[in-house]
Amino acid sequence: NDRWGIVLRAGGNNLFQVHSCIDGVTNLCAQIAGWNFNANQLYSSSCGLILSAAGSIQTGDFVTSNKGWKIDSIGNAEFNNLCARGAIKTVVFIKDQISVVGGCAMIRPAGLSAYDVNPTTNMFNVFVNSEVSQFAVNDLARLKDGLNDYWGCVIACGCNQYGCYITLGIKSGARFNFTKGQAIVNYGSAAGCGGIVLNGQCPYIDLYTHSGAPWNGTNSRVRIGNLNGWGAFATDTYGIAAGCPIGQYLTFDSASGVLNIKGVIVIQSGSSGIAGFSDANIDNIADGATYKRTTINEKAGAGYGFSGLVSNGTIVGINRPDTRGSNELPTWYTKGSFNEFKCSSAIGITGANSYGNLVTEKPWCDASGGYVVQTYTDGAGIWQRRSCANHLNWQPWYKVTDGSGGLVNRVVPAQNAAPSGAGLYLGADYMGYYNGGWKTYMDNTGNFYLSGTSGGLAWVSNVLTVCGIVCACSGCVGGFTINDTEGLYSGSDATRVQIKAGAGFWAGATAQASAPFSVTQAGVLKAASGAVGGWEISSSGIRKYGETTAQYIWLSSSGCPTIVVAGYASTGASYHTFGGCLFNGAWLNDRWGIVLRAGGNNLFQVHSCIDGVTNLCAQIAGWNFNSACLYSGALILNSAGSIAGNYTAGSAGWCISSTGAAEFNNVTVRGTTCATSGRIGNICISASCLWPGVGAMTIVSDYFCSTGNVHVGYTGINTCRILLCFGQIQAYNCNASGSLACNTLRYSAGSTDYAMCICMFGGSTCYAFCSNGRINVNSVSCSSDRNMKTDFQLVSVLPMIRQTPITKWRFKDSHDYQIGWMAQDFHCTFRLAHNWETNLTVSGLDGIALRGVQELDECVAYNNRRIIELESRNACLETRLNCLETEFLQLKKAA
Predict the structure, then answer these.
(1) Residue 62 DSSP class
(2) Would you say 306 and 296 are in contact if contact means Cβ atoms under 8 Å apart?
(3) How far is CA 833 from CA 520, 823, 824, 827, in A?
(4) Cα–Cα distance, 724 to 735 (Å, whole number)
(5) Which residue, among 426, 337, 412, 418, has the nearest Cα to 375 in the 3D structure?
(6) Average pLDDT over residues 723-729
(7) Cβ neighbours of residue 578 closer than 8 Å, sequence gap 6 or more
(8) What's the mean pLDDT in 835-861?
(9) Are strands 398-401 and 410-412 parallel, antiparallel or unpaired?
(10) How far does Cα 309 stand from its chain's mean position?
(11) Which of 315, 312, 313, 314 is nearest to 298 (CA)?
(12) 445 or 344, which is more confident
């Protein structure tokens, strides 16, 4: 009784149930396929597992870097221990540690040489394999060891049978022999690039650039740390520097505390300005060559203009231009000023060569400041004019007073002759105030208007209209009495209707407390009966107005407050449409529905389909549901106890039924599979087979052979069955009566010494088995049809063969030694098949051997070509040496 809740039922089943916590505010949702939920997530009991609608999944006790686990919506994951049966691939691997680098560290793309390289020319290849993506044509690369420093330019990138490589052409330094693992640093494009240097000894961080020849030096553009050597800094000084040390720059160091800027300071539009300077006083700065105090001149339309640098000191003077010879536009004058100007009759005021005072000001009644008013005074009287909208021009001058100070009125003879300016007017049809239109006035028919025809008060044809507040302490209005004590009321007891300030409104009784209908000042509505918006109110509850049949929605007040949705008896439907449902901001007049909200969030929402019967439920922690199941896309969690994904029996998807029966496409079992009945492929599992001679826990094949008129599992003719039972494999050819006709397949027993005998039915040879013993066959046939294969890839096997251990060994139950790979080592290196952890195939080993022979042949052919090339070069050198020796002997003899 201290909580609220709701239960939705369909077909006798609980479709959904929710109840509040004891505080009456927080919602606790449960028993949706065993999951609780709120507006944002599904969570198991005790918050063991949480599925968030935002895309994350985590344990309820997850605390980052402490306990539990979580996978968020962008793929970030945190676990305690991670056990991977396959490979773990990552771009960056980080372990909690402190990293120390001696000397300098450079942040630039780089690669490692995969082989030893002894370059004989200034253009040579360096194999970097997967790191070839770190380089591009025209990039500058550097190779450096303790004595040598070589700079090259990337001429080409490519791949061959030995791996992926870059081709370098010399730019600076000399080539040298280097070993496998030599670092090749990419300094970026030859057109110019940059990088980051972290110097741990000085120390500092440099952001540098180069102009295409980094071997001649780089340019530090930003330095953080020790500024010694940057620009004019010649001692160890810590701070920050940015820019060009010999050009424009900005520096700040902790020693002097001075911010130095060499360049221009520009404050862009929209900036908030510069904060106050601490101890600086600009007023104390004397006039200099490029700055000084100056006079401020008032300019047309722009207020005050400044010439040169202006300090925040006192303005020493204002010069006003003479207006006697010109009639300036309103934009020329400064709004809101009371400055007086001399003005002559040349600007349009009556009077020959008369001069007076002109005052420009913002009118007191114009809060927007959109207008300017000018008043001109001379001996003939007072004149006034007003600017047009946006100060584009002036309205006409009109005279306010005559020379003696009396007001001047203008008489308008007819309605159609509109006044020319704002003021009070008396005409044949109207009398009142005009300003772009008649405001407060009386017409010649006796009608009176205050603030125009749509204003606050009008008397038209004996009718008084008030567009505002009417205040009255007593009197009568339309049969209602007004007084200070009771407010506004009429009648007494059963005919009483009353409105009272501080109390509210009621009817049907003189006292508000006993009235059958009342609305308090706080907005509380009480009604004993009646109708509100199509709903009938009675002592037993609220239902559709005038409804006497079973088809209505009823809010019952008896017992626990209940909402009852009655069915439409004439059609047998469970629900019926009453006025439509507001769903996702749109009215669905042919449907019904409900939305539960808590804390400003949609906790639950459901609406019917267009047939008015079927329920479509959505957005419960990202899951849809109906009376039978929860579903999300092709995944269905059925309340009957099954779970399925994109399932079509016998053809697609997967399913686990309530009885434990399961159907999948492919299943990987890491442990033991136990079954007392059923079928795996064409193999039947039986706990108590009725075939003669076959006991419990026997696996019986149901193999069908189309040759030799042999059918398996077909009664009425001979049936062939293979039995696997307790270490024995036996074949039976059973007749229709079930008697055993033959026993031709045995394991460990028979008339010969074979470890296993296989009986072939109808000449078929489609059998496969695994044995640790010896297999004697004349030949082995492996399927190798090109049409059966796909995903062809080039491969290099020699490097993998070199790194895979090959040892001498023997099987545990044998005394004979063999030489070969271990399946685990082979699988770790070659990764050819998912089930090669403990087995090897003949075709795979043969393919590796053949490819290895090809690669060895390629290496031999390459070396032969190199030998021929070197022998040719050696012959040339030998010839040249002989020539030099001959010339030397001749020169020696001549000497």
Answers:
(1) -
(2) yes
(3) 81, 11, 12, 8
(4) 20
(5) 337
(6) 46
(7) 544, 552, 553, 592
(8) 83
(9) unpaired
(10) 51
(11) 315
(12) 445
> What tokens appear for 857 in the block?
């042949």
Least confident of 133-137, 436-440, 614-618: 614-618
Nearest to 617 by CA among 26, 33, 1: 33
C-beta atoms surrounding 778 within 10 Å: 4
Encoding tokens for residue 841?
Answer: 């195939």
Relative to beta strand 487-490, strand 373-378 is unpaired
Q: Is 330 helix (H, G, I), strand (E, B) or coil?
A: helix
Identity (one letter) of the amino acid at 644?
A: A
Contact 239, 253 (CB under 8 A): yes
For the chain, give the mean pLDDT: 71
- Residue 475 to residue 471: CA distance in whole angstroms: 11
Give the three-state DSSP class for 136.
coil
Summarize pLDDT for 232-264 with one digit per residue, the tens. Answer: 899 999 999 999 888 899 999 988 888 888 888
For residues 460 and 452, give the distance between their C-alpha atoms in angstroms, rounded to a whole number: 12
Report phi then psi at 214, rounded to 5.
-65, -20
Contact 744, 731 (CB under 8 A): yes
In sequence order, which residues have a C-beta less than 8 Å from that of residue 162 and are 6 or more positions away? Answer: 115, 127, 796
What single-letter amino acid sits at 86?
A: G
Pair of tokens at residue 44: 């198991």
Tell me how far apart the alpha carbons of residues 515 and 525 are, in angstroms, rounded to a whole number: 11
What are the structure tokens assigned to 326, written together? Answer: 């010109």
Q: How many CB atoms lie within 10 A of CB 566?
A: 17
Q: Which two tokens stand for residue 726?
A: 């307790």
The yes-or-no verdict on residue 187 having pLDDT over 80 is: yes
Q: Residue 805 has what DSSP assignment?
A: -
- Output phi, psi for 659, to 5 deg: -90, 0
Instruction: Read off the pLDDT of each residue in 657-668 and give the average, rounded to a whole number.
Output: 82
Distance CA 637, CA 255 (A): 70
What residues contact 517, with CB distance under 8 A and at least 6 apart? Answer: 506, 507, 508, 526, 527, 528, 530
761-773 per-position pLDDT tens digit: 333 333 445 455 6
In percent, how much of the chain has pLDDT > 90?
12
pLDDT, position 750: 35
Residue type, position 360, single letter: T
Q: Which residues contact 785 (CB under 8 A, 6 or more apart)?
A: none
pLDDT tops 60 at residue 384: yes
Q: Do residues 209 and 219 make contact, with C-beta atoms less than 8 angstroms apart? A: yes
Q: Would you state the pLDDT for residue 668?
A: 79
pLDDT at 438 over 50: yes
Q: What is the Cα–Cα distance from 730 to 746, expressed in whole angstroms?
A: 5
Q: pLDDT digits over 646-661, tens only? A: 888 888 888 888 887 8
Please tell me the predicted confidence (pLDDT) of residue 313.
Answer: 44
Q: Could you tell me the CA-to-CA distances from 274 to 250, 258, 267, 271, 277 in Å, in that order?
A: 18, 18, 9, 9, 9
β-strand partners of 143: 150
Cβ-based neighbours of 798, under 8 Å, separated by 6 or more: 852, 855, 856, 859
**Residue 773 tokens, joined:** 């013993």
> Exposed, middle or buried, 179 (CB in 10 Å: 0-12/13-18/19+)?
exposed
Torsion 417-422-428-429 (CA) sign: positive
- φ, ψ of residue 25 to 5 degrees: the values are -120, -55
Contacts of 159 (CB under 8 A, 6+ apart): 132, 165
Which range has the worst mean pLDDT, 271-275, 535-539, 678-682? 678-682
CA dist list (Å): 553 to 436, 452, 549, 561, 646: 59, 52, 11, 13, 39
pLDDT of residue 166 exceeding 60, the answer is yes
Q: Which CATH number fits domain 102-190: 1.10.3470, 3.80.10, 2.40.10, 1.20.950?
A: 2.40.10
Encoding tokens for residue 126? Answer: 């360096």
Better pLDDT: 121 or 826: 121
Could you give the CA distance from residue 250 to residue 240 in angstroms, rounded to a whole number?
Answer: 8
